[in-house]
Amino acid sequence: MPRLPCAPRKTASGASLAISRATASTLSQTRKDAVTSLVPEPALKNFLEEATARYQAALKNSTDAVAYLRSRGLSEASAASFRLGYVESPLPGHEVARGMLAVPYLTRAGVVTVRFRRLGDGDGPKYRSVPGDPPRIFNASALLVPSDHIAICEGEFDAIAANEAGLPAVGIAGVSAWKPYFARCFKGYRAVYILADQDDKGQGLEFAEKVAEQIKNARISPMPTGHDVNSYVLENGTDALLERLEIKR
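Given the sequence above, the corresponding structure tokens read:
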């Protein structure tokens, strides 16, 4: 049986929300291939762990990277918890990411991939992914938090900001990275908040609407005009996000 894109999670009562073998057997071959590829082979897992450890250790030596994270309002504790790093000396295959932030995708099984983020404005792509890597859910561990609600953000840093605010949240790397089979990960929640960015030309709402179409208990929650989740929390504080969603701590 192929490994599914999200592990069975537990509710506040401790009940496991497992996916049955019968349900898994109905998956299309395309989905089976995608799901299986989400689990790296041992050699790749070791490489990803080595890369994450190297880049995380290099972060403190980059004043630019540390300053950038501070400008985004991300705490040192969050940087350490999410194992954010800086690509000072790239491992083979990561040369194009030299000088970028490293954002590992962590799971209970270890690091499953790493994406790279440019420091501020500049030349070149804002983000880089490993070529051929399948779409994944960032911070999938949030699915294991005992909670009747969860948030879906467009982007890793928005998800980190939401988690800092006390809101369990996962991140998706853009509209094209959302896959229909991700929706089953969000069954059983009372509310799934789709936090829509409003700092773009409508892509944030496009992302939110696409996701909400596939999740019955979804609630689209747009940020104020000119803001994404990260900038909203940075400007208004962590309590403001929960108050906006009418969530009590």
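The domain at 136-244 is CATH 3.40.1360.10 (Dna Topoisomerase Vi A Subunit; Chain: A, domain 2). Try to locate this feature in the token string yourself.
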